[in-house]
Amino acid sequence: MLPDAGPLERSDGFRTDLAAVAEAMREGRKSNRVDPRVLHEAVHKCAVNARTGRFPPEQLVRALKELVRDVTLNDDTEAYRVLYTDRVIAWAIESYYELSDR
Question: N or C: which end of the chain has fewer CB within 10 A?
């Protein structure tokens, strides 16, 4: 958790959502055969819960970037970090603002 964590990062529900995103990322990185929709759904749920909890999107994005950095910390290359950051943040923004439903 971030040292200057805001109310969102301190929320038990959000921490549970982040744990689900982290687990989906770890599973996806183990094999190319894992369905990416599992990660997408975990990110979607996290973002929707942040929105319904009236937390600012900036806190959501900051927490997800930190999570991706932590999960990919031991990678030999920065490619996974960039790929996952781009993908996760795009999905989070789309879900937070319900852009994929329009």
Answer: C
